[in-house]
Amino acid sequence: MPPEIWYRYEDKTYAGGINEDGDWDGDVILKVELRAFVVLRRTKYGVWLALTFGNYKTGDFIGTGRRFVLNRSVKRFACPTVEQAVTSFIARKRRQASIYDKRGAKALAAIEIIKHIQEHGTHKQIIL
User: Fold this and answer.
1) Domain assignment of residue 86, given as a range
2) In total, how many domains does the chain have?
3) Does residue 93 lie within any of the structural domains?
4) What's the rounded Cα separation, in Å, for the pair 101 and 89?
5) Most buried of 14, 63, 67, 100, CB within 10 angstroms?
6) Helix/strand/coil for 128
7) Is 75 helix (H, G, I), strand (E, B) or coil?
């Protein structure tokens, strides 16, 4: 019987490399990759996933990495189907984008404050 597999999409960034002229090609390559995790054990509340692969028939895995994932968790490390993994990935990336948008707004506000200090010599408060 084949092992039960759970899935997770992850975005990976790879460096460009050297071009034909021997110069550094600074382009960054972004890839979205599907990872598969073997279920080591199923419990009443969730599953234990192997974070590294090995021989699932004998139970010999390279390393000791494993992770527990709750059945009822809204945010899951991995999902039982590829479709759920896609939905989870999109939610994670939307949240990440939202966080970076807020960080960008905070950085721009800090620039505005320091320019005000520079021009007027007084402090200014900005409520975000």
Assistant:
1) 5-14+25-120
2) 1
3) yes
4) 18
5) 67
6) coil
7) coil
pLDDT at 62 over 80: no
Answer whether residue 128 is part of any domain.
no
4 vs 11: CA distance, rounded Å: 23
Q: For the whole model, what pTM was predicted?
A: 0.74
Query: Identity (one letter) of the amino acid at 70?
Result: L
pLDDT tens, residue by residue, 95-127? 999 999 999 999 999 898 888 888 887 766 666
Q: What does each C-alpha distance from 111 to 10, 17, 82, 114 come to in angstroms?
A: 33, 35, 43, 5
State the pLDDT confidence band at 56, using cuts at 50, 70 and 90: low
Tell me how far apart the alpha carbons of residues 100 and 95 are, in angstroms, rounded to a whole number.
9
DSSP state of 115: H
pLDDT number for residue 53:
58
What's the half-sphere exposure (Cβ side, CA atoms, 13 Å) at 30?
A: 3
**19 within domain boundaries:** no
Q: Is residue 125 part of a domain?
A: no
